[in-house]
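Handover notes (outgoing to incoming on-call)

Open items:
1. Monooxygenase component MmoB/DmpM: sequence verified, structure written out, both below. Nothing else pending on this one.
2. Nothing else urgent.
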Amino acid sequence: MTGTAPATGRPRTVGVDLQQNNEETRYVVEAIAKDNPDATIRHLPGLIKIQTPGTLVIRRETVEELLGRPWETHEFQLSIVSYYGHVDEWDDDQIVIKWSH
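Monooxygenase component MmoB/DmpM structure tokens:
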């Protein structure tokens, strides 16, 4: 079963940890929440943990809408501390993290 937890058959959790170091990160987190309604977001000292079952999507268009300026997906690298899952897609329009197997 691709991307499911072996014992339960439910989608495996994927996630990212982001530095809580600038105003831009706040808008990226808001965009992730908007595009991933099942995501759980925890604010810790200096770190934001985002988890969701199955697939996490970061859409350039949503980030730009909230940020109020053009945003390129490679800028995500400035905030990310770690992630779990596989980067299935990372292009100019979106970043997709999910388990491939």
